[in-house]
């Protein structure tokens, strides 16, 4: 391989032009300092106050130091603020860290703790002690007694960090809990009742949803969502924010349909057009890799309809777009996406006969997670596996809307500054870059770009050999499992010993990481960025000690001495060498990979190896870079190393980041509509659970249902001959279970008009219900009412969620009719929600009016509800997956960004209940927005 060619001089192609407005920014920064620098200076004054307490804390005995916690709680009870307590509380936590953990918080770590307490994001480089920093803000806020949640990206880190910091917290009199999946309910309840609770973002989110499916207040887990510290905050609030949390239950079996559709998909051919629109290959479908869309064209639809008709799945002459065939169309698209967008060992792996999803950001497998909209079943059919039943949504939310429920939110990460705009716009969080304790010594080299992937891999192997020969540990970062296995195969051929760390083998993660910093060690890692574990130069001596049974002091001393020699050897050879086999679509993920080297001021270096065949380069940057390389007369095996190329790639990454931000923003705007509905339903549900007597609620339901029934058959201000009396009698019989001779009343009483008839009907209905109460007993009926309304609400809410999913999935089509999809979604979802509220009232009254309640019925009903809930819980599945409808985000046109996802703030006078609603629905306010309020 030839040496990499470094090009100098003026750029042949200007990839970016500096904004003239930015010319004065360096001057202003020099005069006044950046906002971040000003914040750090402000906090340094508080650091001095903390340091002033240190001598006083050192003089205290352990018991006296522990007693400070009770003293702080008493001062808070008397009205003292946490801000005022901060210097002394931080000094206490620092002293406890010294005594219990043997670790003293640096001054910059105190700044990190203040950043967390103030509800901001602390950006701290790898190895700067984020876990220890969290103890400061967590301890201070736990003093309020309202609980603190520490959120991590996986269960391993939640348990590790909780057990690591538990001695410090317990020394200070704080209780610590950990929430994990499949935890016994009582154990989980205790974990949430603790002062400090560790857990994953998924578990906290799912527990919130589960709490809002509980049948009593005692079954709930979470208390007030007070304060959360999110570790790896960018991973949780950015990377995973694109995908909602969904709890679902199994629906009817349609495995045969998936098998038939799976046979059809391979017969479809790809349609290819050149840039100018010239068809080079006529086919049935198109694939857009940028937006991850796959679409049938006209010929494709015709072919699919003919094929489905021939095998009996579609009636003769029927269209796929007929209302009753839409589910069939969904199956076809699920099959297309499964075959054309989801690849084995990239987006998923097959393990023990199951399709297991792979997290694209961390490379970890996600057992138990399933894709919705029939996509998971389509992949199972594609892989010839047993097809599991489809799922129906029971509850859902997004991380954006869940974490915005906390009174105060903060986070920590090594890379947040590139996403500062999104953090501020979506969550209202400011990013603070915390100065490192030691200056960074890592060297970050320019990217090397090759024409082909084969040349790139050859260069990587050569770099590995050179680094290992020098005694340096090497970490090779790959974006997919497929790439890691390909690299491993190349190294096996070369006879180079190495360890592989990817989604298939993460059980061995700690063991591999422990040795990854040894001299000459080689580790291949799939998206190492999200692993949450530091690579220590020379290896990890503590892991070696832990592997021994009852180690003697002499053995421990020897292990430490051996480690010190290895540590020094690695430092002298240049530290950890990070090699990346391709660029991730996010600069932040690349920065995380780089950040594995050079921790705490250690030596280290990083280099990215790219080729024009890489997915990011192929989709976004290949034409420009290829033309540039041709202009230089590049030869096979030769690489280009130029800052301009790196800039071009970063520009491509910014494009992808911008698109992904739009997708997340779009998800949030859609879910904001759902969230308003979710809050109304959950508030209604919690009110029902907390109430001992819902008699007044039932009376209100009865009044509303009667009014709606009368209005449907006796139009307001209409003449008696326009009344549908027979229809009214039938409706009252259906809804209230009573046969009333309304026509006879009207014939006998000339003074019976609309309002007096309404009053007479209400009296009759109340009398009939009171008779039922006399038979069953007031206490039994009150209990039964509560259980029935809960059941009706849950069943209808579940169906409503399914309807909303279908609405969102097809809403992008409104754009083709020159309508704004977001506005249409907002309008239609409000109509659906109004109908839901009406249905909850009507169905509850209908059941309560028709059922014959015995005194033992409430107990039996409660037992039946619990049995059903337990059976449902056993069938529940927990998903965190791509939101439906988002694959069309780029096809909506620019006008979509103009739409508001929530109703604007209104300053008009308060409307009367009988006035027309302000939304333009044509309904009275009391039957429209008024009933939601």
TrEMBL record:
Top EC class for this record? translocase
Annotated SecA family profile domain ranges read 25-641
The job of this chain, per UniProt, is described as: Part of the Sec protein translocase complex. Interacts with the SecYEG preprotein conducting channel. Has a central role in coupling the hydrolysis of ATP to the transfer of proteins into and across the cell membrane, serving both as a receptor for the preprotein-SecB complex and as an ATP-driven molecular motor driving the stepwise translocation of polypeptide chains across the membrane.
Q: What is this protein called?
A: Protein translocase subunit SecA
Q: Which UniProt keywords apply?
A: ATP-binding, Cell inner membrane, Cell membrane, Cytoplasm, Membrane, Metal-binding, Nucleotide-binding, Protein transport, Translocase, Translocation, Transport, Zinc
Q: What is the topology of this protein in the membrane according to its UniProt annotation?
A: Peripheral membrane protein
Q: Which family does it belong to?
A: Belongs to the SecA family.
Which residues does the UniProt record annotate as the domain Helicase ATP-binding? 111-269
How is this protein organized at the quaternary level?
Answer: Monomer and homodimer. Part of the essential Sec protein translocation apparatus which comprises SecA, SecYEG and auxiliary proteins SecDF-YajC and YidC.
Entry GO terms, CC: cell envelope Sec protein transport complex; cytosol; plasma membrane
UniProt-annotated binding residues for ATP: 109, 127-131, 534
Q: Which reaction does it catalyse?
A: ATP + H2O + cellular proteinSide 1 = ADP + phosphate + cellular proteinSide 2
Main localization (coarse): membrane
Q: Which cofactor does it need?
A: Zn(2+)
Q: Which PROSITE patterns match?
A: HELICASE_ATP_BIND_1, SECA_MOTOR_DEAD
This entry's Enzyme Commission designation comes to: 7.4.2.8
Task: Output the GO biological process annotations, alphabetical, semicolon-separated.
Answer: intracellular protein transmembrane transport; protein import; protein targeting; protein transport by the Sec complex
Fetch the Pfam families from UniProt: P-loop_SecA, SEC-C, SecA_DEAD, SecA_PP_bind, SecA_SW
For this UniProt entry, the molecular function terms from Gene Ontology, in alphabetical order, are: ATP binding; metal ion binding; protein-exporting ATPase activity
Q: Where in the cell is it found?
A: Cell inner membrane; Cytoplasm; Cell membrane
Query: What is the organism of origin for this protein?
Result: Pseudomonas fluorescens
């Amino acid at each position: 391989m030839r040496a990499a060619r470094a090009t100098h001089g003026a750029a042949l192609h200007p990839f970016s032009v500096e904004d003239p407005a930015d010319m004065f920014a360096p001057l202003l920064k020099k005069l006044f300092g950046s906002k971040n620098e000003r914040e750090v200076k402000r906090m340094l004054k508080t650091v001095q106050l903390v340091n002033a307490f240190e001598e006083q804390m050192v003089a205290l005995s352990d018991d006296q130091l522990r007693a400070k916690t009770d003293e702080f709680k008493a001062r808070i009870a008397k009205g003292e603020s946490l801000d005022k307590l901060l210097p002394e509380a931080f000094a206490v936590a620092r002293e406890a860290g010294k005594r219990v953990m043997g670790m003293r918080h640096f001054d910059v770590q105190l700044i990190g703790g203040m950043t967390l307490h103030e509800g901001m994001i602390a950006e701290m480089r790898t190895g700067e002690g984020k876990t220890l920093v969290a103890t400061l803000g967590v301890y201070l806020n736990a003093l309020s007694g309202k609980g603190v949640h520490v959120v991590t990206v996986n269960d391993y880190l939640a348990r590790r960090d909780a057990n690591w910091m538990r001695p410090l917290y317990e020394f200070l009199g704080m209780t610590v809990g950990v929430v994990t999946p499949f935890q016994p309910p009582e154990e989980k309840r205790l974990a949430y009742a603790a002062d400090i609770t560790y857990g994953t973002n998924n578990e906290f989110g799912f527990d919130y949803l589960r709490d809002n499916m509980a049948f009593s207040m005692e079954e709930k887990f979470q208390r007030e969502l007070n304060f959360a510290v999110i570790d790896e905050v960018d991973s949780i609030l950015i990377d995973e924010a694109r995908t909602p949390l969904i709890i679902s239950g199994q629906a009817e079996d349609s495995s045969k349909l998936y098998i038939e559709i799976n046979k059809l998909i391979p017969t479809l051919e790809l349609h290819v057009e050149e840039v100018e629109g010239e068809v080079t290959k006529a086919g049935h479908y198109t694939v857009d890799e940028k937006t991850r869309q796959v679409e049938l064209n006209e010929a494709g639809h015709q072919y699919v309809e003919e094929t489905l008709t021939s095998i009996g799945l579609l009636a003769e002459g029927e269209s796929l777009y007929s209302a009753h065939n839409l589910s069939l169309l969904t199956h076809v698209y699920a099959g297309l996406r499964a075959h054309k967008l989801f690849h084995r060992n990239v987006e998923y792996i097959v393990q023990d006969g199951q399709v297991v999803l792979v997290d694209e950001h961390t490379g970890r497998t996600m057992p138990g997670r399933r894709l919705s909209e029939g996509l998971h079943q389509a992949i199972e059919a594609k892989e010839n596996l047993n097809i599991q039943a489809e799922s129906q949504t029971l509850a859902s939310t997004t991380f954006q809307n869940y974490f915005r429920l906390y009174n105060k939110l903060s986070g920590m990460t090594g890379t947040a500054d590139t996403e500062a705009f999104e953090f501020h716009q979506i969550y209202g969080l400011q990013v603070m870059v915390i100065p490192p304790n030691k200056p960074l010594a890592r060297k970050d080299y320019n990217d090397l770009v090759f024409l082909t992937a084969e040349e790139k891999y050859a260069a990587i192997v050569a770099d590995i050999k050179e680094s290992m020969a020098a005694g340096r540990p090497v970490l090779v970062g790959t974006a997919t499992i497929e790439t890691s296995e390909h690299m491993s195969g190349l190294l096996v051929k070369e006879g180079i010993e190495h360890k592989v760390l990817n989604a298939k083998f993460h059980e061995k993660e700690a063991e591999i990481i422990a040795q990854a910093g040894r001299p000459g060690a080689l580790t291949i890692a799939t998206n190492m960025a999200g692993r949450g574990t530091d690579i220590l130069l020379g290896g990890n001596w503590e892991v070696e000690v832990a592997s021994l049974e009852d180690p003697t002091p002499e053995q421990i001393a020897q292990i430490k001495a051996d480690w010190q020699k290895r540590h020094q050897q690695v430092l002298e050879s240049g530290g950890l060498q990070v090699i990346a086999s391709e660029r991730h679509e996010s600069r932040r993920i690349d920065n995380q990979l780089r950040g594995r080297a050079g921790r705490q001021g250690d030596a280290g270096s990083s280099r990215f190896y790219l080729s024009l065949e890489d997915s990011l380069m192929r989709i976004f940057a290949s034409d420009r870079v290829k033309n540039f390389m041709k202009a230089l007369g590049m030869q096979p095996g030769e690489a280009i190393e130029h800052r301009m190329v790196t800039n071009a790639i970063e520009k491509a990454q910014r494009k992808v980041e911008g698109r992904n931000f739009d997708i997340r923003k779009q998800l949030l705007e859609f879910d904001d509509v759902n969230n308003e509905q979710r809050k109304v339903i959950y508030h209604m549900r919690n009110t029902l659970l907390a109430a001992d007597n819902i008699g007044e609620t039932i009376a209100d339901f009865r009044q509303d249902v009667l009014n709606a029934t009368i209005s449907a058959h006796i139009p307001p201000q209409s003449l008696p001959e326009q009344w549908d009396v027979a229809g009214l009698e039938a409706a009252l019989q259906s809804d209230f279970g009573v046969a009333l001779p309304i026509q006879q009343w009207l014939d006998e009483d000339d003074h019976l008009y609309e309002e007096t008839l309404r009053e007479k009907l209400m009296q009759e209905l109340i009398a009939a219900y009171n008779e039922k109460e006399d038979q069953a007993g007031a206490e039994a009926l009150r209990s039964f009412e509560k259980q029935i309304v809960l059941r009706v609400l849950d069943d209808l809410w579940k169906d409503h969620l399914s309807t909303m999913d279908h609405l969102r999935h097809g809403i992008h089509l409104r754009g083709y009719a020159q309508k704004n999809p977001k506005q249409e979604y907002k309008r239609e979802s409000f109509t659906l929600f109004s109908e839901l509220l009406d249905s909850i009232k009507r169905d509850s009254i209908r059941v309560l009016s028709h059922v014959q309640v015995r005194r033992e019925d409430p107990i039996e009903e409660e037992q039946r509800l619990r049995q059903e809930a337990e059976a449902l819980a056993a069938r529940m599945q927990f998903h965190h997956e791509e939101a439906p409808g988002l694959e069309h985000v780029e096809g909506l046109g620019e006008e979509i960004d103009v739409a508001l996802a929530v109703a604007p703030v209104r300053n008009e006078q308060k409307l009367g209940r009988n006035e027309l609603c302000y939304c333009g629905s044509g309904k009275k306010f009391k039957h429209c927005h008024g009933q939601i309020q």
